[in-house]
Amino acid sequence: MNDGAAGSVPGGGRFTRRATLRNLIAVAVAAVSAQTALQWWTRQPAKEPLSDAIGDGSFDEMYAGRHIRGARAAGGHQHAGAGWDITVDGRPLHLMRRADGGYLSMIDHYQSYPTPLIATRRAVDELGRGQQLRGRNA
Predict the structure, then answer these.
(1) Which of 62, 66, 120, 134 has the greatest count of CB atoms below 10 A from its CB?
(2) Considering the chain, what is the average pLDDT of its residues?
(3) Angle at 81 between CA 78 and CA 84, to 5 degrees
């Protein structure tokens, strides 16, 4: 019979390094999973405007702490057929016009958006808080 020898627990089990390491890893995985789930759950849904058609569709606003500005491009200054000059915090964001009439950005070129404003907002969402676009700063 075991009378409380080192490494034994009531009920006949034993503490081993392997079991302790396995338990620590399980706790770490659970903590990371919980944090990821909490971030996903508390994420604010994107609020789309009913329309971005204010006059000619130009926009100049603060979105998610970023200054976004967009206007139709002047005659000989069009980017890949998009026809828009877009900046995020004074740095250019290039949009491309798709065959379906939507827009995509250099940040998120897998998704089509119906207007330049919405495409710009989604690019800001993808950038997050810590990243900036490359290019001139106006």
Answers:
(1) 120
(2) 76
(3) 50
